[in-house]
Amino acid sequence: MEKTLAILNGCRENNPKYQKIFYDNYNAFALKIVFRYIYNYEEALEVTNDGFVKFFLQIEKFRHDMEADLERLLTGWVKRIMINTAIDLLRKKMLLPEIGGIPEYVWDIKDKNPTAEQMIIYKDLITLVKKLPPAYRIVFNMHVIDGYTHIEIAEILKIPVGTSKSNLLRARALMQKYLNQKEELTVCSM
Question: What spatial distance separates the first Cα and last Cα of the chain, rounded to whole Å?
């Protein structure tokens, strides 16, 4: 905890040494969040870096009451910045689908995932989510994976709450279809 606090204080002082340490510690975490929204590797890297720039520029706004909550609050704040930065790019591109895949070596980037089984499940989920149309995918990511409410999604995406709910319903139906197809393929290949 003291180490994280020291790194944050160094970042608040615009010390490049501490900014690099922070970047190295949270880069894998941030990149995987961005990949849920941006599937082009080069764009995802750019969005992640833009997110870190925003983080360092806004670090004075980050507050925490107790040191026990520091890591949880910090990762939540980084997550929110990365999601908003990714959504800004998608909005600028008018929610056009990304072309290209995620290179296999990206999945080997180490973060705080506790088990290999969780990593396989995560990879499979992201592969299925990638098949969703952009509007459905964004709402699915924000609501199911990132825990935003429909009201928050509507405010961020500047859409009606009903549209958010409808997109989620359609995304879930498509995800169920994809999962059923995947299950059928698995059963047939046995």
Answer: 49
- Measured in whole angstroms, how far is the alpha carbon of residue 17 from the centre of its chain? 26
Short-list 168, 166, 143, CA closest to 153: 143
Tokens representing 2? 């003291």
- Which are the contacts of 62, defined by CB distance < 8 A and separation ≥ 6? 8, 73, 74, 77
Give burial (CB, 10 Å; 0-12/13-18/19+) of 108: exposed
Domains of the chain with bracketed CATH: 1-104 (1.10.1740.10), 113-190 (1.10.10.10)
- Rounded to an integer, what distance in angstroms lies between the CA atom of residue 7 and that of residue 58? 15
State the Rg of the chain over Cα.
Answer: 18
Per-residue model confidence as pLDDT tens for the chain (190 residues): 678 889 999 999 999 999 999 999 999 999 989 988 887 888 999 999 999 999 999 998 888 776 768 888 899 999 999 999 999 998 887 655 444 444 555 445 555 545 555 556 667 777 888 888 888 999 999 999 889 999 999 999 889 999 999 999 999 999 989 888 877 665 555 5
Tokens of 140: 């699915």
Contact 134, 96 (CB under 8 A): yes
